[in-house]
Amino acid sequence: MILVRSGSGLRIEGTGGGQFRQRFEVRLGGTTFHFVRGYTWVDVAAGSARLRFVNTHLESQSSQLARAQADELLNGPAGDTSLSTVIACDCNSNPASIAARTGLPLGSGAAYRLITDGYGFSDLWLQQPDPDEPGNTAWLSELVNDEAPDFERRIDLILARSASPGQIVANRVEITGDELSDRDPVSKLWPSDHAGVLVELRIG
Predict the structure, then answer these.
(1) Whose CA is closest to 22, among 74, 65, 71?
(2) Which of 8, 116, 153, 157 is most buried (most C-beta within 10 Å)?
(3) In this predicted model, which residue has the larger pLDDT, 165 or 90?
(4) Where are the beta strands (DSSP E) in 58-195?
């Protein structure tokens, strides 16, 4: 889901969405079940500047499928190089440096490498001023009742490709929902099993 704040001054010029053709399959009792993943997008105008904002969730059970889904996205709604594009993505794909440091197979970063190296998107987290801040967002238990945070992977990403140099710049980036104080004061539940990524963009 993509939400736009009322009174933001942004103009919505088009919206859409779809499901990936590449899907994780499980055979159970003679029946094939599909894990359906998809994406939504919105074309936004701010003054004279325009961009496409894409939201997606890539497959978590297979790095090969996550890469294939990213390829679909980059040859679909995120493929127009004449239009500045931002992708907000639970990519289930680590940057190579993270994979190496945590002992994960480098294949787990295949989708990330395709988006950044293959299609020229910038990882906006890397524009934040503290190079030692890991930006980890995953993950907590399914019940989100963990006593202490255990965020050890950076797989929730904001990626951008400008149609012209300097058209999209990250003014501020931070992780949200990763502190004990972020839990609900009554239930002690975390807001999500992932922390959030906040990026304030300057456009145009």
Answers:
(1) 65
(2) 157
(3) 90
(4) 84-90, 122-123, 156-161, 168-176
Closest CA to 14 of 44, 40, 34, 55: 44
Percentage of the chain exceeding pLDDT 90: 73
Q: Is-contact 89 157, C-beta < 8 A?
A: yes
Query: Could you read off the pLDDT of 123-173 as tens digits, one per residue?
Result: 999 887 776 788 999 989 999 999 988 888 899 999 999 998 888 889 999
Question: Which superfamily is assigned to 11-203 in CATH?
Answer: Endonuclease/exonuclease/phosphatase (3.60.10.10)
Of 104, 191, 118, 130, nearest to 159 by C-alpha is 118
Contacts with 77 (C-beta within 8 Å, 6 or more apart), sequence order: 16, 18, 39, 41, 52, 54
CA distance 135 to 44: 27
pLDDT of residue 102: 47
